[in-house]
Amino acid sequence: MLFRQLFDSESSTYTYLLADLTTREAVLIDPVLEQVERDTRLLEELGLKLVVVMETHVHADHVTGAGQLRERMGARVMASAKGAPCVDRQLKHGDVVRVGQLELRVLETPGHTDDSLSFLCDGRLFTGDALLVRGTGRTDFQNGDPGQLYDSITRELFVLPDATEVFPAHDYAGFTSSSVGEEKRHNPRLAGRTRDDFVHFMKSRQIPPPRKLDVAVPANRACGLTAPADSQSPSA
Amino acid sequence: MLFRQLFDSESSTYTYLLADLTTREAVLIDPVLEQVERDTRLLEELGLKLVVVMETHVHADHVTGAGQLRERMGARVMASAKGAPCVDRQLKHGDVVRVGQLELRVLETPGHTDDSLSFLCDGRLFTGDALLVRGTGRTDFQNGDPGQLYDSITRELFVLPDATEVFPAHDYAGFTSSSVGEEKRHNPRLAGRTRDDFVHFMKSRQIPPPRKLDVAVPANRACGLTAPADSQSPSA
Fold first, then answer.
1. Please, what is the Cα angle at B11 between B188 and B177, to 5 degrees?
2. Which pLDDT tens digit goes with each residue over A5-37?
3. How many Å apart are CA B107 and CA A143, to the nearest integer?
4. Which residue from A minimizes the CA distance to B44?
5. What mean pLDDT do residues B226-230 have?
6. Chain B residues lying within 8 Å of A162, measured CB to CB
7. Contact A174 B9 (CB under 8 A)
8. Which spans of this chain does the record mark as coiled coil (chains A, B) (predicted)?
9. Which residues of A touch B38 (CB under 8 A)?
10. For residue B186, what is the nearest residue in chain A, using CA coordinates?
11. What's the half-sphere exposure (Cβ side, CA atoms, 13 Å) at A60?
């Protein structure tokens, strides 16, 4: 199995490439539009066929590369049934996505957004914006809900083995990964905090909305592709 | 064994943490001064004792955290005999640094600077600024030499097994790692290029010096610590 973590410095987004080195089939999790050239070249150099793109959620801080990767490479785009309508397969809790011999198990982990998913593959947990290294996603837009996020993390993620590696969709402090055990013990929003503590803390935060919110969310509901010309010109 | 890649976004520097989970002894490769708090906290949270700091070379783009980590945690600082005079152990080709059960083998890979080392540990190769993902370090200061860099990469690094993972000291395009086989085949400065091609290319580049060159190099020769007061006041 090949595993590669990629970073978009403009949005501090991590994209993950996983591939079965026998069948050469690959999956990208949370690709970024501005990095499609980089990612396409990397796939070509590695001799991989991109068959699946998986989104942890409809992102508000960057535009996805999913639609372009589908057009260029024929990949099937997958995300939550509660998320973008543009996808080829709607995922729900307990689903397993097979890419060659790889199996990615789908966990519904809403709270950052109502469509947030995490993916578990061979001891690696891709948490999107639900669980970050020493942090969590925010819960103040896109139907976010702090109580729901607390439940998702504690009931779905923190029940996994402590050694499970945690790979988030973002980091802003230079961490690339963590583990379930480490976050249970040291995540300052969760360790030793009750659900009520967490909800109170999240509701008391005053932070500006993501810079790209108004652009990214509608774009990502179309898998990052520009809407067709006729839908841009309602008078036509 | 624990392995963790850390990033300093201001200088695009990767720092590496390796630890023996039995003895809890740890080594940091190329720590950054501004990240000493982050790294110290991480070591504490993980219950690790930092016993060694290793530098791949005297850096020109950031100030090292080595001296502060030595003062705070008692770590021994190690680097090339041709590098900073402040170190506790001077390393040369073929040396092995033991940290618990971990063994880090020292490879002299000069050319980016004359003191550049790479370290090999359990299939992971830490290449400093000698070999980057799809690139190399520059060779136009600190006794850099493009012919020497070509020889270092092709004779010391590219002779390792193709599956050896490559972890550079920097990346500017969002790559976190590569492999020896991948760089042999796809590094645009090296794949299909002769030594003369490489030397010509490196000598023809016109790029400004690192922003921190004049500050970082003298600071790093003192392991990132401010010179003692009396040496700052020669008249005292």
1. 45
2. 999 999 999 999 999 999 999 999 999 999 999
3. 54
4. A186
5. 51
6. none
7. yes
8. none
9. 173-174
10. A45
11. 20
Structure tokens at B101: 């059960």
Provide the whole-model pTM: 0.94
Domain boundaries, chain B: 2-206
Task: Give the pLDDT score at A62.
Answer: 95
**Residue B139: closest CA among B164, B119, B114:** B114
> Number of C-alpha atoms within 13 angstroms, CB side, residue A231?
6
| B21 inside 8 A of chain A by CB | no
C-alpha to C-alpha distances, A120 to A55, A168, B14, B65, B96, nearest whole angstrom? 13, 12, 26, 35, 37
Q: How much is the pLDDT for A209? A: 86
Would you say residue A229 has pLDDT above 70? no
* Interface contact B9-A9, CB threshold 8 A: yes
* Confidence bin at A213 (pLDDT 50/70/90): confident
Size of interface A-B (CB pairs under 8 A): 42
Chain A 197-236, residues with CB within 8 Å of chain B CB atoms: none
Would you say residue B9 has pLDDT above 50? yes
Please report the pLDDT score of residue B232 as a whole number: 40
Q: Which CATH superfamily is domain B2-206 in?
A: Ribonuclease Z/Hydroxyacylglutathione hydrolase-like (3.60.15.10)
User: Hey, of A42, A184, A190, which one would you mutate to test binding to chain B, going by the most B CBs within 10 A of its CB?
Assistant: A42
Among candidates B98, B91, B42, B94, which has minimal Cα distance to B69? B42
A108: exposed, middle or buried (Cβ count in 10 Å: 0-12, 13-18, 19+): buried
DSSP B179-193: EHHHHHHH-TTTTT-
Q: Do A173 and B46 touch (CB under 8 A)?
A: no
Residue B225 pLDDT > 60: yes
- Does A173 contact B38 at a Cβ distance shorter than 8 Å? yes
pLDDT in the model for residue B227: 53
Residue in A with minimal Cα distance to B14: A174
Measured between beta carbons, the chain B residues lying within 8 angstroms of A35 are 174
The answer to whether the CB atoms of B38 and A174 lie below 8 A apart is: yes
- pLDDT band, residue B229 (cuts 50/70/90): very low
